[in-house]
Amino acid sequence: MDQSVPVDDQELEDFRDNWQSEVVMAIGASKKNAEQSSGSGGPPSGSAGSEVTKKKGEPPQQQQTAESRAIEAYIKAGHYERMGALSDALAQYRDAFRLDPEVERHYRHAMQTDRVGLEARYGEYLHAQNDFYTYYQFGDAGHSTRMAEGMKALDDLAREFCRDGKAPGFRPMLDYKPCTLGKLPSEVVMKILGSCFIRDRAAIVSLSLVNKKMFVLTRERTVWRRMCEALHPVHVGVPSLDLELRRYNNDWFEMFLDKPRLRSEGVYISRVNYTRTGMATETSFYAPVHLVTYYRYLRFVPYSMQCYFWTTTIEPASAVKQLHADSIQYHRLVRGFMNGTYVHKGETIHIEFTSEEQPKMQFQCTMNIMQTRRGLHNKLVWKEYTCNRKDEPRNRMEIPKATLKPFIFSKVRSYLP
Predict the structure, then answer these.
(1) Which of 123, 236, 239, 299 counts the highest number of beta carbons within 10 A?
(2) How far apart, in whole angstroms, are the C-alpha atoms of residue 375 and residue 201?
(3) At what angle do helices 86-99 and 60-83 cross, to 10 degrees?
(4) Is 371 left (phi over 0), alpha (psi -120 to 50) or beta?
(5) 35-44 as b/e, with b when 16 or more CB fall inside 10 Å?
(6) From start to end of 301-346, where are the E strands?
(7) How far is Cα of residue 134 from the mean position of the Cα atoms in its chain?
(8) Strands 348-354 and 337-345
(9) Segment 247-272 mean pLDDT
(10) Long-range contacts of the stretch 44-47 (C-beta < 8 A, 24+)
């Protein structure tokens, strides 16, 4: 049985009339407020807008001084940011926005209305902004001042250990197990250390921490001279190391650190990525895009002027095993593998490659030895890469540098000489 709810038409009409009257009153009130604000030329007193433009209880002169100080801090912050001093820039930005939360808007307005005045007051910062330069402040010397002070402290420590002109001896940890190395003269021990350091240069740090005797011996000039002579063999066209020692303050250790060298205890790896458009199928509405990755490996053979160059898609974890000295002879006929000889002079290295795959072709490249934040002399940057036929040496073709990514050195433990 259906039951209908009675509806009163008069009640609906009253509700509709009340709602329309409320809407009309609200629209009229908003129009009246808008006319009052436009007639006064600004927001009414006591509104939020007046609190933004003028702080309560602060005189206009003091407000203007705070705004000018905020603009000054904002300009200095931009200058420090371009210089690379991010800590100073962050501190100046904090001061600027603490003094005036709308300092950016006020700075832009001042640049449009009073640019001459700003240049007169902050010209040293604004002129640098117009030049669009980037400046990084490093140390004055090749090594930083901290490095020089640290080396001086180590030398002072070594002299302190050698009191009365006598170096400390080896003291065994257990009395019933005497130290055999302590029976040898210091000259013989230094000869042994020199041979060990040439094979593994990182061992010198561990040995210097054994005891005072080892620390003093690792600071000897003879050890570092032998290491420099092993790393930089003298050949035709290269000056003697004794003549170059003047550049490094007559210090063999400083020459070991600063003089550019090729690292043979690992491999230089260059990773190249590029995209290639695929072929769309009949049932698809788009063409796929493939990301292709391949690698270039460059390894220098220690104590010789030979090197290996390999272009392949094999990952580094597997490629370094195939570039080992014991297995390299089995990969000479692999696709993309080339043998080469190099000449190292200063920061530049020139390499000539030959390939068993292309016996009639010859490849030449020139690279510069650079450094990164991870270490010294661990980056090779392409300078030139050309190829030519062996019977036409003058007809060289240059390979574009767009596909030549820099090499980054990666140490391999099994490559120790």
Answers:
(1) 299
(2) 14
(3) 160
(4) beta
(5) eeeeeeeeee
(6) 306-312, 337-345
(7) 15
(8) antiparallel
(9) 88
(10) none
Contact 343, 313 (CB under 8 A): no
Q: Which two tokens stand for residue 139?
A: 């140390």
The encoded tokens of residue 168 equal: 């400390």
pLDDT digits (tens, 9 = 90+) for 340-399: 899 888 889 999 998 888 888 899 999 999 988 888 889 999 999 999 988 888 888 888
The DSSP line for 89-117 is HHHHHHHHHHH-TTHHHHHHHHHHH-HHH
Residue 370: HSE in the Cβ half-sphere, 13 Å Cα cutoff: 12
352 vs 305: CA distance, rounded Å: 11
Structure tokens given for 388: 């030519």
Residue of 261, 179, 178 lying closest to 227 (CA atoms): 261
Total-model pTM:
0.56
Tokens found for residue 86 = 């991010």
**Which two structure tokens, joined as six digits, stand for 66?**
């705070």
Which residue pairs from 161-168 have beta carbons closer than 8 angstroms and sit at least 24 positions apart in sequence? 161/212, 161/215, 161/216, 162/216, 167/213, 167/216, 167/217, 168/211, 168/212, 168/213, 168/216
Q: Decide: 398 and 386 in contact? Cβ < 8 Å.
A: yes
Average pLDDT over every residue of 106-132: 72
What pLDDT sits at residue 202?
Answer: 74
Highest-pLDDT range among 65-79, 130-144, 176-190: 65-79
Residue 414 has pLDDT above 90, yes or no: no
pLDDT of residue 154: 62
Whether the CB-CB separation of 342 and 364 falls below 8 Å is answered with no
Closest CA to 330 of 312, 356, 306, 360: 356
